[in-house]
Structures are given as C-alpha cells and as structure tokens.
C-alpha cells in the first residue's frame, strides 16, 4: 500500500470534486433560479439521507476488512460480493418505500425524486470500499473525475431554464452508472475478483459488522443534513438556496483534510488495533500541526467570505456569506472529530462508543437546529450545526485520551 500515492490521489479527487461543482454552480444557479434550485437542493438533501442508509457502515468496515485481507483473494471476493448484495437489498427496499410515499402524498414534482434516487443508486453501488481497502485510490479518482466532468459539461450544454431541472439528476445518473460498470470490469480484470452470489450468513455478517458505524452515520447525517431539510419546511426556497451555497463552500474547506483521513484509515488499521491501543506520538504531533494550519486558513478565508460569494454566485446570494462565516468553524472541529472517532476509536474496536456519542449529540443537535432556524433562519441553522459538531469532537477526543496510550 503506497500511502503517499493514495493521499495524492484522494486529494486530487477531492480537489476536482470541489472545483467542478464550483465552476458549474454559478451557471446552474442562474439557469434554474432560486426557486427551482432550492427544490433541487431539498430533494438532494433527502437523497443524502437515503445514501447514508444504503452505505450502511460498509465504506469503513469493509475497507478495513479488505485492507487486512490483502493477498487473500477468496476472503476479499466474499467481502466484495456480500457488501454489494447488501447494498442492493437496501436500495430495493428504499425504492419501494419511496414509490409508496410518492403515491400516498402530494409532492410538487415526484419525477425529481425518482430521477435523483437513480443518481443516488449509482453513488451507493460504486465500489469505493474495494479500491480503498486495496490501496488503489487512483482508480477511484480516474473513474469519478472522468464521469463527473463529462456530466457537468453535458449539464451546462443542456440545462437552460427552470424547466430543465430534471436533466441534472438524470445526466448524473447516466454517467455515474457508466463509472460503476467500468469499476466492475476493472475489479474483474485487474484484481481477478468476481461477484458471486453470497451465502445469507455472509450478508448478515456484513450487516452485523457495520451496525455501529451505520448508527453513527445515520445520526451524523441526521444533524448534518437537517439544516436544509428544516429550512425547507420552515423557511423559503431562497433561504434554502443560500444555505446550500454556503454548505457547498464548506465542503470545499473539508476537502483540505478529508482525503488525508480517507487515505490514513486503512493504513491506521494495520498499526493500531484493539489489542495494541498505542499511537505514535510523532504522528499525533503531525496531525495536530495540520489542525493548527487548518485553523489559520479558516480564519483568513472568513475575512474575504463576502468577496468569494459575490464572485462565485453574484450579489443576489450575499446572504450565503454570513452563513458561510459561521460554518467555517466546522472544519476545525470536524478534523478533530475524524482523528478521534475515525482514525483511532474505530480502529481500536470502539465503534459502539463512537456511535453512542454521535447519537446523543445528534438528537440534541437536530432539536437545537430546529429552534434556532425558527428564530434566526439560515444563520440559526448554521450555529446549531457548528455547536453540534463541536460537542461531538470534544467528547470523542476526551474518550480517546482515556483509551489510547502514546508510544514512540
């Protein structure tokens, strides 16, 4: 496993994943208008919850298990087949429930939900867990970037008015599906791993293994995506659109450190375990130095937040600037949360502790976000989200200090 190549690949993927939407977003916002763009954002947020459910805990636990099984093709094949089967079962159940809800209740445009679901499906099935576990992140980068870049070009060419909103998830679904098919071909030809129908017990083992991570992700997604959903219920599409744009900029900031966390996770799984709860002090110092640099960067960006928003989205979306400044606190505490919760606690077998902390904080956080949204609209949602993230980060760090020993 070449850790440097993996980090570079994931940084490149994250950078292009942020640059591509930033280049296309100003055009899409202007072409759709605030109302249609707000509707798209709301539906996308709902699909984000479904994606969390369908991903279960596979993208961490299956990644860890494959990383520990490198060289054992039979074991890897079983994990690969069981995870894909489990995801398909979840997606089938989700689609049936979605169709039932759309039939029973009155929605403005049910087609937008269906089209967005199929795009979410392609994201769910893409075997990120396999490539990450094998330490071959470059394939994730190549396939994702080529499909998304092509999709964005087609969207810019075809989306010209609010009536074209359906084309966005449809085009993304087509090219996302293409990337998935190519990924399956690569896994078969390069790694000689083929899908085989797994035993029921193997699928159940994957569900059992990923349960604590799944619970943490669900509750984490509950508060993380609640801002848009709650604002969609208690505020206007214009406020939702502004909040969404601020979140898009937040995702760019997260792109500074999330590739590092993703690349280090399978590597950490080999050096810190439930049997040896020791972490190298020099490595920890380097991670906290990164945290210091990130803190300084967020402060500097807050000084020019207005200029960034106006340049990218225009004067009409200046509300997004004040929301973005509040959200800038999140990357700092989220980086700390990922070090404590993902890199350390999960790898020493404390997924349940990670889950409990996230569950309790998320329930309190959603309540806080709701009441602050009623009182302060978009700014209130941002404040509630930032406080929730901080609570989780500090609690997880406290437990890491109790559980882990420092070593040279």
Taking strands numbered 1, 2, ... along the chain, how are they ordered across the largest sheet?
Answer: 1-2
Q: What is the number of helices?
A: 16
The radius of gyration computed from the alpha-carbon positions, rounded to a whole number of angstroms, is 21 Å
- How many domains? The number is 2
N- and C-termini, Cα separation: 22 Å
Write the layout of secondary structure elements.
Elements: H1 3-55, H2 58-68, H3 73-104, H4 110-125, H5 128-133, H6 137-158, H7 167-191, H8 200-224, H9 226-234, H10 237-254, H11 258-271, E1 278-280, H12 281-303, H13 305-313, H14 319-327, H15 330-346, H16 351-403, E2 405-407
Parallel strand pairs: 1-2
Helix pairs in contact: 1-3, 1-4, 1-6, 1-8, 1-9, 1-10, 1-11, 2-3, 2-8, 2-11, 3-4, 3-8, 4-7, 6-7, 8-16, 9-10, 9-16, 10-14, 10-16, 11-15, 12-15, 13-14, 14-16, 15-16
Overview of this protein structure:
With 408 residues, this protein is mainly α. The chain has two domains: 1-207, no CATH class; 225-408, no CATH class. Helix content is 84%, strand content 1%. It is built from 16 helices and two strands. The two termini are 22 Å apart. 49% of the residues are buried.
């Amino acid at each position: 496993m070449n850790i440097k190549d993996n980090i570079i690949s994931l940084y490149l993927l994250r950078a292009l994943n942020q640059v591509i939407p930033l280049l296309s977003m100003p055009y899409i916002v202007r072409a759709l208008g605030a109302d249609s763009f707000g509707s798209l954002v709301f539906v996308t947020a709902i699909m984000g919850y479904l994606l969390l459910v369908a991903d279960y805990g596979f993208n961490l636990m299956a990644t860890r298990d494959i990383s520990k099984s490198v060289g054992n093709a039979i074991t890897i094949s079983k994990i690969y087949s069981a995870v894909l089967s489990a995801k398909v079962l979840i997606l089938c159940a989700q689609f049936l429930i979605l169709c039932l809800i759309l039939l029973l209740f009155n929605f403005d445009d049910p087609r937008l939900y269906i089209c967005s679901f199929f795009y979410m499906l392609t994201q769910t099935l893409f075997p990120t867990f396999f490539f990450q576990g094998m330490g071959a992140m470059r394939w994730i980068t190549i396939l994702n970037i080529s499909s998304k870049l092509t999709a964005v070009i087609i969207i810019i060419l075809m989306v010209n008015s609010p009536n074209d909103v359906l084309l966005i998830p449809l085009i993304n679904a087509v090219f996302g599906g293409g990337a998935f098919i190519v990924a399956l071909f690569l896994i078969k030809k390069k790694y000689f791993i083929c899908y085989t129908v797994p035993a029921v017990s193997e699928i159940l083992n994957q569900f059992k293994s990923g349960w604590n991570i799944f619970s943490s992700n669900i509750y984490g997604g509950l508060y993380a995506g609640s801002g848009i959903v709650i604002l969609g219920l208690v505020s206007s599409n214009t406020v939702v659109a502004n909040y969404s744009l601020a979140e898009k900029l937040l995702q760019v900031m997260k792109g500074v450190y999330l590739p590092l966390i993703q690349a280090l996770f399978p590597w950490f799984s080999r050096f810190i375990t439930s049997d040896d709860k020791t972490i190298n002090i020099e490595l920890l110092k380097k991670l906290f130095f990164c945290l210091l640099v990130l803190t300084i960067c967020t402060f500097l960006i807050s000084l020019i937040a207005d200029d960034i928003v106006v340049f990218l989205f225009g004067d009409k979306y200046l509300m997004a600037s004040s929301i973005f400044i509040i959200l800038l606190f999140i990357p700092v505490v989220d980086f700390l949360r990922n070090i404590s919760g993902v890199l350390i606690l999960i790898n020493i077998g404390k997924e349940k502790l990670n889950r409990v902390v996230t569950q309790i904080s998320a329930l309190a956080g959603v309540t806080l976000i709701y009441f602050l949204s009623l009182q302060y609209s978009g700014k209130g949602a941002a404040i509630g989200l930032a406080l929730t993230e901080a609570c989780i980060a500090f609690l997880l760090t406290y437990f890491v200090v109790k559980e882990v020993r420092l070593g040279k």
